[in-house]
Amino acid sequence: MKDRADTLLENFMSGIAHRHGGEAEFLRAVESIAADVLTIEKADSGFTAARVLERLCQADQVIEFRVTWRDDRGAVQVNRGWRVQQSNLLGPYKGGLRWDPSVNLSVLRALAFEQVFKNALTGLPLGGAKGGADFDPSGRSAAEIERFAQAFMAGLAPHIGPDRDVPAGDIGVGAAELGLLNRAWMQHARVWGGALTGKPQSQGGSAMRAQATGYGLVYFTQAMLAEEGAGIEGKRIAISGRGNVAAHAARKAMALGARVISLSGRAGTWHAADGFSAAALDWLLGVSGDAAQTPPKDMGVTFIDGCKPWALEPDIALPCATQNELDLKDARALADGGCRVLAEGANMPVTTDAKAHLARAGVIQAPGKAANAGGVALSGLEMRQNAGFARWPADQLDTDLREIMCAIHDRLKAERTSCCMPGGGIDYRRAASVAGYRVLARAMVDGGVF
Ligand SMILES: NC(=O)C1=CN([C@@H]2O[C@H](COP(=O)(O)OP(=O)(O)OC[C@H]3O[C@@H](n4cnc5c(N)ncnc54)[C@H](O)[C@@H]3O)[C@@H](O)[C@H]2O)C=CC1
Ligand SMILES: O=C(O)CCC(=O)C(=O)O
Known about the structure:
Rossmann fold; 12 strands; 46% helix; nucleotide binding; oxidoreductase; NAD; Glutamate dehydrogenase; Aminoacid_DH-like_N_sf
């Protein structure tokens, strides 16, 4: 028999599905948060009357634009660009730009919705957004990337600005692309300044933004381990991906004495049974193309074609590549291999059935909206520096980052009474949704009906 919470969720989701029929990724993202917070909403007559969650599900606005550019052969190329400005309840819209062939409106809506809750957890004045294009930067020349960035910004520039909407990077958009995009924005706006974070320091970018997501992920993982009376030193950590987040998570974990036993890409996994050395990590992060699949013999690294890292029996799993990368089969392998802690560097990397299996197996899991919030938090600190024409040193920013990640952990811990695992530990997934929701709901009620 269905209980009250199930009926509440079913009714709520049928309304959202009516508006967003074909958008499977978005519906999954909403359902996962709605399952955690609808009973909280129902228990508060002010939140119920304000229809908080339903309003948060509806983006403030969605901008869609054509991106037309010329490739190196002189042929005209056409892509689609979007910016989903989900909510500016707590501050200017804030969230990354993704350039990847998998990008579509449903994926961006899902990421923007998550971003609203994540940004609320940082304690900084940040609204939530996400954007991007269905453009594949791999194999494109530097000149093509530059032309694409300028064409993309021609569509986006009228909608962003330091107090309005401040994009940053994500998959396919790194420091180099952010430099091109921010300069292009300055040309459109006819000002010097920053409407994007993660930009080069020559344009007012902040130290530590590149490192922040990966470092923050490891700081959050340390806080989870401390809660269990454990430390990170000597732990075997499997990391997926080998982009910005994965690379900096690996460096920080190694600096703290952990053994990073894997990184991965679309083609397969690099496995270092005794842990990557600094030299092996430098090699892997510096090599490209087919050469990456044949590691030098003295590195202690093997490439496992077509495999993911989750069957390597790690103590800790840090998925840092992309959404839905870790499925039920992977969850079984992790749990059977003795993994105790999983923290999401990527956004929504674990499928619904995999999350449920890990929970049943007693694996403590931190969702991306808490564990990878260090990136957007450092972006918030970049915005503060820009507003005050200031430049803060890296060591100060690193200290601030660590404090913010510990404060997020504390906010989740404060929800422990109602967000508790069967074994007694903190249910970080539910706690993150609930803690973010409370901040957003109070702000919505404060603003009346708008
Ligand atoms: N860059 C940032 O500050 C933040 C990023 N994230 C999330 O972290 C994840 C990674 O982002 P970045 O490192 O910035 O992107 P990136 O573009 O620098 O790296 C992504 C990496 O994942 C690999 N990859 C993609 N699909 C894969 C798959 N199916 N299996 C294995 N590897 C795959 C790519 O080859 C690449 O190495 C994304 O989910 C992103 O939304 C979350 C918070 C902030
Ligand atoms: O720093 C930002 O604004 C982007 C961060 C982001 O896209 C994310 O947290 O997923």
